[in-house]
Design brief:
Strand content: 25-35%
CATH architecture: 3-Layer(aba) Sandwich
Radius of gyration: 20 Å
Number of strands: 9
Strand order of the largest sheet: 1-2-3-6-7-9-8
Number of helices: 6
Number of domains: 1
Structural class: alpha+beta
Order of helices and strands: HEEEHHEEEHEHHEE
Oligomer: single chain
CATH topology: Aminopeptidase
């Protein structure tokens, strides 16, 4: 029975064309006939900052930051030239990677009969993949809503999240994905 479910899920996934609406700030990934997931860009993940800090100390993150610094132009800013008194653009330091932070704002499986069959996990994976596409730097952080509000993520969604965090570089509820 499980093999049959897995086979049907693969067929539906191959036939399904994810519909994407929105932009890099707020987007929705819809799996027609199954459900949707919405991600919103945030400035930080205040309730999960310790997890973000742990990831930023990992070799994967440090390698991405080093690659970014080596392959991008130095930071510049408008500064006053002491000799001429005029303002001009000048280098102020090395390039600094500024990853995007995304939070799963909403996730829903339309038909209760489809719940518990792996479709939610597929939607999360596709949303994470899209978030990585929208990220302009070398990496992206993705987390559940609980990382910004302290609550708001259902127990079912947290189980999916726990399963996903074993597939990606992660700490606690925060997933890290290199984009290059």
């Amino acid at each position: 029975m499980n093999l049959l479910r897995e086979y049907v899920r693969e067929l539906l996934s191959e036939q399904a064309r994810y519909q994407i609406k929105g932009d890099g700030n707020h987007f929705r990934v819809t799996h027609p006939g199954i459900g949707y997931i919405e991600l919103v860009e945030k400035l930080r993940l205040k309730e999960c900052q310790s997890d973000v800090d742990k990831i930023m100390a990992l070799p994967e993150y440090l390698a991405a930051a080093k690659k970014y610094e080596e392959t991008n132009p130095p930071e510049t800013d408008l500064v006053r030239n002491e000799e001429t008194g005029k303002y001009e653009i000048a280098e102020v330091g090395p390039a600094v990677m500024r990853p995007k932070f995304y939070v799963v704002d909403k996730a829903f499986i339309d038909n209760p009969a489809h719940r518990g069959k792996g479709y939610g996990k597929e939607l999360y994976r596709e949303a994470i993949r899209r978030a990585a596409e929208y990220a302009s730097d070398e990496c992206v952080f993705v987390a559940p809503l609980t990382c910004t509000l302290g609550s708001g993520t259902s127990p079912d969604a947290m189980r999916v999240w726990a399963s996903l965090s074993r597939e990606y570089t992660s700490s606690g509820n925060v997933i890290f994905v290199r984009t290059n």
